[in-house]
From TrEMBL:
Residues 154-347 form the ER-bound oxygenase mpaB/mpaB'/Rubber oxygenase catalytic domain. It comes from the Bacteria. Pfam families: MPAB_Lcp_cat. One of its GO terms (molecular function) is oxidoreductase activity. This is ER-bound oxygenase mpaB/mpaB'/Rubber oxygenase catalytic domain-containing protein.
Length: 396
């Protein structure tokens, strides 16, 4: 295999993103100093995967029925695995890693990070959907595993529901303590990634490793987690939310630990927004801009509001779709929106500007404690609505 180069660094989409688009905003937001000096150190992770997770899937999932394997893994997660337990070697190895609390963990920072996610209430969900998720679709190679595993057929409602379920459960109080719900979600998600990766290897012979990297490789995973940390914070900031240095630190700490549990190598997990922006810069240099699949994924997400039966009336669904389109235009570069063929709508800055204005007042008039309480309640309500729709067996 040839040595990987920052092959898109001279292309227009890369340059525009980092000199006048969201990339430039990220540099201004974080004080990052971007360059290619560490490119080789990171680029090897394009061909690196979570082998520990892969071995567990081969030994547990591929040797029995899926439901049986899932029960077995759930049992290990909830009860723990000790060195004397009679379990497959790969399971021992996985649990030795995840049951070892890294020495850098700071529980008060995890708590502060979780509070920020809850405190920003619906803005957190808007950020995840209209910036992190849809913005990620602009990176054509990053989406290949989604396309190959036919995620489009599963539909955006289900995919959004799964992302929300994961995000809400890892961002509550004490969620990541061993055996708790967020911890369980992280481990299961890690094994789903391994399962998908091995299935792609098995069934999809046209996978282009040289260009796309290995399926769900460690470098792509890093970029995804920078979406949950850096891009998410930048979005909250654009929507007029303020946060303290401590909250920001806590937020990165929380996602660093989630990334650790997911098997992302520690050296790929940024500690702050400056480092995250510098890491992200290198990764974007190997990604081409949107292709036809990107447009399909973006439109599937935009039309989710119309398909989703949570809102009873058609006019409500249309209105929700309109509001998401306004936020997408507001949060992403115009150039990215045009590439993803986001529809043009009138008064598209109206809703985001009102949101910013209201946030400024809300921040000053409601106590932090009450905002956290209300945010947690509202986010759990949205999740419950989604789960009630997707767990209903006739919904496809």
């Amino acid at each position: 295999m040839n040595l990987l180069q920052p092959r898109f660094k001279d292309s227009q989409h890369f340059k525009n993103f980092w000199t006048k688009g969201n990339g430039k905003q990220l540099i201004d937001f974080s004080g990052a100093e971007v360059s290619f000096k560490d490119f080789e150190e990171f680029s090897k992770y394009f061909y690196h995967v979570d082998e520990i997770g892969d071995e567990v899937v081969k030994e547990v999932y591929f040797t029995k029925k899926y439901s049986e394997a899932s029960r077995e893994i759930e049992n290990y997660i909830r009860n723990g695995v000790s060195e004397t337990d009679n379990v497959p070697e790969s399971v021992q190895k996985l649990f030795k890693q995840i049951q070892t609390i890294p020495d850098w963990i700071d529980y008060s920072l995890l708590k502060t990070g979780a509070e920020l996610c809850m405190r920003c209430n619906v803005d957190s969900l808007i950020s995840l959907r209209d910036y992190c998720l849809i913005g990620g679709y602009d990176y054509a190679y990053l989406n290949k595993p989604l396309i190959v595993t036919e995620a489009l057929k599963k539909g955006a409602v289900k995919r959004l529901s799964e992302t929300l379920d994961f995000w809400v459960n890892v961002t509550r109080y004490d969620a990541l303590e061993i055996h708790n719900k967020g911890y369980e979600f992280a481990i299961k998600t890690r094994l789903i990634h391994s399962y998908a990766r091995l299935s792609i290897h098995k069934h999809y012979k046209n996978w282009d490793t040289e260009n796309w990297g290995k399926p769900i490789n460690s470098w792509d995973m890093m970029a995804t987690y920078i979406g949950f940390s850096l891009v998410f914070l930048h979005s909250l900031h654009k929507l007029g939310n303020t946060f303290s240095e401590e909250e920001e630190k806590g937020h990165f700490h929380l996602w660093k630990y989630v990334g650790y549990l997911l098997g992302i190598p520690e050296e790929l997990l940024p500690n702050d927004k400056k480092q995250a922006t510098e890491f992200f810069y290198l990764w974007t240099s190997i990604q081409p801009s949107s292709d036809q699949d990107s447009v399909l994924l973006a439109h599937s997400l935009l039309n989710e509001s119309l398909e989703n039966p949570i809102l009873k009336f058609n006019f409500q669904r249309k209105n929700l779709r309109y509001l998401h389109i306004c936020c997408t235009w507001y949060l992403l570069d115009d150039e990215v929106c045009k590439r993803l063929q986001i529809p043009e709508v009138s008064f598209r800055n109206g809703f985001p500007y009102v949101k910013r204005f209201v946030n400024k007042i809300y921040d000053q008039t409601v106590s932090r404690k009450n905002r956290i309480k209300k945010g947690n309640k509202d986010q759990l309500k949205v999740l419950a609505d989604y789960l009630s729709v997707t767990q209903n067996s006739n919904f496809h």
